[in-house]
Amino acid sequence: MISLDEGLSRLLAQARPLGDEPVGLEAAYGRVLAAPLSARGDAPQAAVSAMDGYAVFDADLATTPARLPIAARIFAGAADPAPLEPGTCARIFTGAPVPPGADRVVIQEQVRPDGDAAVFEAAPGAARHIRAAGSDFKVGDVLLEPGRRLDARALVAAAAADRDHLSVYRRPRVVILGTGDELAEPGRALETPGAIPESVSFGVMGLAWAWGGQVIGRRRLPDEPAALEVAARQALDDADVVVVTGGASVGERDFAKSMFPDGALDLIFAKVAIKPGKPVWFARAGARLVLGLPGNPTSAMVTGRLFLAPLLAGLSGRDPVEALAWREAVLGAPLKPAGDRETLERGRILNGRVQALSDQDSGAQRALAAADVLIRRYPSSPAAEVGEIVSVLDF
After folding, report:
1. Radius of gyration over alpha carbons of the chain, in Å?
2. Which of 242, 288, 284 is nearest to 265 (CA)?
3. In the prediction, which pLDDT does 363 show?
């Protein structure tokens, strides 16, 4: 049995991007950029007005008040406006190209329209209200670096660069195999004597999507070796990552590893000295990765958050360490001494402080829904009092 840090170190060594693929801009949200994104042109392409107002020559406003005829009206999207003639002005709108020769745009609030002319009662201030060509970025400028997760702001930059397709890292394909004779699909468990709703795979599926995976299959399987072996072979054919839930304890019907073909698994670790979740295991099967999670809901979600999240983040092109952003928090309620294994207590942030939930049972699902952080307790940690600092991970 290895420590949490050792388990994570071995897992992170496998969490490398799977390769890249092109996607359309409309499908790029949440993906991770695989190549530098550079601009196809200048922005703006020509000098444009930053405000609604009037384009003028400075010399024509040397003495105010001044009355200038409006020689043109220029809207955003206009192409190649005619040069501005001395002694005239042009009505101009935000984003419209500034006519050649104009020195500034005077905002409309400082100008009084007078028929076909504009009256400038006082000299304008220092602001010119003109965005110079290329003032945002120039052709060839790199706007986004590889590894950037494409959030809403990044998509604005990508579209502004005039890119309709982006090179992104491929999402790891995930198949989830939930094992156990006692499991039934939600909505049917009460009609089956002895059955309980299969809940774990839905939480694992949510984790997978949240951290960059593409869930292509979720199967509920009985503890029957033949059915398990067929499902395991198919999963290895289809997926980059196979997640097996349950079947990893010491019992007569635990087939989590034996369901895979003989010699297929190169075990990276078999158990981790943590509570909950000691039975978590991790293996490579050729080009595929297999992660085994406990069958108890809380144990599965804790270990999934610790191991599946960084694995999928790294495979999808993100820095996997982003998924392990431990931070300090102040205790709002005391903690009991920890046991001989590293413990991940489920907790909540209340009024800026963290406190452990009263129900820490590995099968508790109501308490699981209430938790928003994991509190890290090292082996044999003494009791902790209100106001002490603990390490937490967003759950």
Report:
1. 31
2. 284
3. 84
3-state secondary structure of 186: coil
Phi, psi of 349 (to 5 degrees): -95, 120
| Residue keyed to tokens 């075990």 | 267
How many other C-beta atoms lie within 10 A of the C-beta of residue 101?
14
Phi, psi values for residue 251, rounded to 5°: -160, 170
pLDDT digits (tens, 9 = 90+) for 59-89: 999 999 999 999 999 999 999 999 999 999 9
Q: Report CA torsion sign: 237, 242, 245, 249.
A: positive
- Provide DSSP, 18-83: --EEEEEGGG-TT-BB-S-EE-SS-BSSS-EESSSEEEE-GGGGSSSSEEEEEEEEE-TT--SPPP
Q: What tokens were used for 92?
A: 């101009």
Number of other CB atoms surrounding residue 27 within 10 Å: 11
Contact between residue 305 and residue 320 where contact means Cβ atoms under 8 Å apart: no
Three-class DSSP category at 339? coil
**Long-range contacts of the stretch 181-187 (C-beta < 8 A, 24+):** 181/222, 181/223, 181/253, 183/220, 184/220, 185/220
* Nearest Cα to Cα of residue 239 among 180, 294, 285, 306: 285
C-beta neighbour count of 234 within 10 angstroms: 15
Cα–Cα nearest to 179, from 115, 250, 228: 228
Q: Has this prediction a pTM greater than 0.85?
A: yes
Torsional class of 126: left (φ above 0), alpha (ψ -120 to 50), beta (otherwise): alpha
* CB neighbour class for 306 (10 Å; exposed up to 12, middle 13-18, buried from 19): buried
Residue recorded with tokens 């494409």 = 150
Q: Which candidate, 181, 177, 203, places its Cα nearest to that of 192?
A: 181
Q: Tens of pLDDT along 137-178?
A: 999 999 999 999 999 999 999 999 999 999 999 999 999 999
**Chain mean pLDDT for the chain:** 96
Max CA distance (Å), the chain: 98
Could you read off the pLDDT of 212-250 as tens digits, one per residue? 999 999 999 999 999 999 999 999 999 999 999 997 655
Ranges of H-type helices in the chain: 4-12, 152-160, 200-210, 225-238, 297-303, 309-315, 366-370
- By DSSP bridging, strand 373-377 and strand 342-350 are antiparallel
CA distances to 18, 256, 291, 380 from 279, in Å? 27, 11, 11, 20
